[in-house]
Specification:
177 residues, alpha+beta
Amino acid sequence: MESADRELITLFETKAVDPNTQPELARQMLESRTKVASETGYMMKFGERSHRALSVYDAYDLGGQGYPVSETALESLPAYIRANLERDGNVQILARYDTENSEFTDTSLASEPTPDELIARMALFLNRGLSLHETVDYLVVEELEQYSAEQWASIRGVGIKAIRSNSRHTSEKIGDL
C-alpha cells in the first residue's frame, strides 16, 4: 500500500549512530540488528512533513518505530539521494513509500523546496526585475545545488561565464531574501 501524501522519511546508516550521543536510537537498532544486518545497513523512520527543519537525529528522536531499508527500497531512490546517503550516512527525504513493493516514489530531499515554494521563489525574483534565465540559473546552481555551474551551462547550451554572471547578478539583486 502506498501513502497518498509524501511523507518525511529519515534514512541513516546504522554504523553512523554513536550510542553515547544517541542512546535511544542505538538501543532501537540493537533490538532490530539481525534484520538490519540482513538487509542494507540502513534504517528509515517516518515523520511529519512539519519536521523538515529538524536535523536528521532530532527528527528521529521524536519517537516512533524505525524500519530496515530493503535493497529494493534503496535501489528505488534517485541516484543523487543515494549518493548523499552514502556520503553523509544519513538523509531526509519527502517521498511516498509503497510498503507492498518496498519502494520510494515521488522522492526529493526534504531540504529541497516544494514545487509551490519554488514557484513562489521564482515569482519573487521575477517581480524584482530579474530575467527568467537569471532566475532559473541562480535557483538551479545556487539554491537547489543539483548541478554545478559547468553542468548547468552544458545542459542549457551556454557558456559557463553566462551562468556565473547570471548567478552573481541575481545574488547581488536579491540580497538576503
